[in-house]
């Protein structure tokens, strides 16, 4: 029997997609930067089916590229193994196996949509903290494989911090059952960490055991205007002194981001009569969060740390404040022309320096470039977007991507930061990783890859450059 006959018998003929129209959505990334090629898209429905399919591919030397919700920002799920590649979709592994309010654990298949997991946890009086813009379409396996971040990292950490255990299909088709739910387990190497953030290059995550938390009794949300990013950092320090660790989100938003939203989406409900250059959105979870947040902001205002502030008093007002963040961070920035995006992190205290020096260097390289630096300043993560100058040739601006990357990433490295805070490496940043990663660290990555995937069949071409091409 042929390989395709075996795979069809494993998953059923309807779950082997080989026509161009059916495969098309799986072959291009969310940002439409990359397009790949594949022989088929296979949609197994169980871990055993995943293992059997991967085993067939390993025997035949066929590359395998796992894909979840395909919402990644760095091309990590675009097949680049050649026309014989098998794209393995986890979308049918969409069962929430259990929500345990006593153990505070969720066990979910890799294909579970993040928002569905959040809602299932909430229905049991629990809270799953990973929250990001694509939560209505991204999937648990992809979150684990990219170590997804989002707005609540300040208090709860990245996806890595939520993972208690994993079930993984290895490149040779074996199943590693590490789906433990223990909070304490010191039995040797913590193998789960090999697969978190590995972007499917070491194996396919098929299920995850994840931490849950008690739901906050109340949530306080405020939008404040500050003089500059340095004032935003100072305000965070002051709020922490008053509120402790109950601050869950702290988002920096410049006026230019709102202006781009107004230009391309339409008018917004302005929170202040006066226009300010910099804002922060802060959220805290506590029994009396709104009152405590109001008091902390009032004290900060007396100390000159903010220019103005509004505190949401209703759920609708809270939604309006988060809408400002959504508008300021939206994909509409593409409508202004060519866009060069950076997902970086630096120590929180270096954020003001990163913004000031990065902006000056970008303007020196190409005057008129619009710098839109926003994001999760509470954990040092900035989305440092560069939009072409008004009237500039988009093709010329895109051609400057490597030069602009060097400006931003050199500064990030100088400040002790990371060139990829929460989006991963994928295809987009392989060359950058080869430049900025410690040589010993790179060597260890290559060694791990060669041991777990000696044939190089698992999501080939992602994260690591071939040793002969790395610079």
Compact summary:
The protein has 471 residues and is an alpha+beta fold. The chain is built from 16 helices and 19 strands. It has helices at 3-11, 20-23, 47-60, 114-123, 140-146, 153-156, 192-195, 229-243, 255-264, 289-302, 315-329, 351-365, 394-399, 401-414, 430-436, 439-452, and strands spanning 16-17, 40-42, 64-67, 86-89, 96-100, 105-109, 126-127, 163-169, 175-178, 204-211, 213-214, 219-226, 247-254, 278-285, 308-311, 339-340, 343-345, 370-376, 381-387.
Write the layout of secondary structure elements.
Layout: H1 3-11, E1 16-17, H2 20-23, E2 40-42, H3 47-60, E3 64-67, E4 86-89, E5 96-100, E6 105-109, H4 114-123, E7 126-127, H5 140-146, H6 153-156, E8 163-169, E9 175-178, H7 192-195, E10 204-211, E11 213-214, E12 219-226, H8 229-243, E13 247-254, H9 255-264, E14 278-285, H10 289-302, E15 308-311, H11 315-329, E16 339-340, E17 343-345, H12 351-365, E18 370-376, E19 381-387, H13 394-399, H14 401-414, H15 430-436, H16 439-452
Parallel strand pairs: 2-4, 3-4
Antiparallel strand pairs: 1-2, 5-6, 6-10, 7-11, 8-9, 8-10, 12-14, 12-15, 13-14, 16-19, 17-19, 18-19
Helix pairs in contact: 1-3, 8-10, 9-11, 12-14
């Amino acid at each position: 029997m042929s390989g395709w006959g075996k795979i069809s018998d494993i998953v059923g003929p309807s779950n082997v997609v080989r026509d161009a129209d059916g495969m098309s959505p799986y072959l291009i990334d969310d940002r439409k930067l990359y397009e790949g090629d594949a022989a088929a898209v296979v949609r197994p429905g169980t871990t055993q089916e995943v293992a059997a399919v991967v085993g067939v591919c390993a025997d035949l030397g066929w590359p395998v590229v796992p894909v979840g919700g395909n919402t990644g920002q760095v091309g990590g799920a675009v097949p680049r193994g050649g026309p014989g590649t098998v794209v393995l979709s986890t979308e049918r592994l969409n069962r929430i196996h259990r929500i345990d309010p006593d153990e505070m654990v969720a066990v979910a298949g890799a294909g579970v949509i993040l928002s569905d997991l959040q809602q299932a946890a909430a229905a049991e009086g629990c809270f799953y903290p990973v929250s990001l813009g694509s939560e209505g379409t991204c999937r648990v396996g992809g979150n684990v494989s990219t170590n997804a971040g989002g707005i609540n990292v300040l208090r709860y950490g990245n996806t890595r911090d939520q993972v208690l255990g994993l079930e993984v299909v290895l490149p040779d088709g074996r199943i590693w059952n590490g789906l433990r739910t223990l909070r304490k387990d010191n039995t040797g190497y913590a193998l789960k960490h090999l697969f978190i953030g590995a972007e499917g290059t070491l194996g396919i995550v098929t299920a995850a055991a994840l931490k849950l938390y008690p739901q906050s009794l109340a949530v306080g949300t405020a939008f404040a205007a500050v003089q500059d990013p340095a004032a935003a950092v100072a305000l965070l320090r002051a709020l922490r002194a008053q509120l402790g660790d109950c601050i869950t989100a702290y988002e920096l938003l410049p006026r230019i981001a709102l202006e781009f939203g107004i230009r391309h989406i339409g008018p917004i409900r302005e929170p202040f009569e006066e226009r300010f250059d910099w804002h922060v959105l802060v959220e805290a979870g506590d029994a009396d969060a709104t009152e405590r947040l109001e008091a902390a902001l009032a004290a900060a205002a007396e100390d000159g740390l903010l220019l103005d502030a509004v505190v949401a008093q209703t759920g609708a007002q809270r939604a309006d404040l988060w809408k400002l963040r959504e508008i300021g961070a939206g994909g509409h920035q593409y409508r202004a022309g060519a866009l060069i995006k950076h997902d970086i992190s630096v120590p929180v205290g270096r954020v003001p320096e990163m913004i000031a020096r990065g902006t000056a260097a970008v303007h020196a390289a190409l005057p008129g470039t619009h710098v839109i630096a926003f994001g999760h300043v509470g954990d040092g993560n900035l989305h440092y977007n560069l939009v072409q100058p008004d009237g500039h040739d988009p093709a010329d601006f895109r051609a400057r991507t490597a030069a602009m990357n060097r400006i931003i990433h050199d500064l990030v490295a100088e400040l002790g930061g990371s060139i990829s805070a929460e989006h991963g490496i994928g295809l987009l940043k392989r060359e950058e990783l080869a430049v900025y990663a410690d040589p010993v660290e790179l060597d260890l990555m290559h060694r791990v890859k060669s041991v777990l995937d000696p044939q190089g069949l698992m999501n080939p071409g992602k994260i690591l450059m071939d040793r002969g091409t790395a610079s």
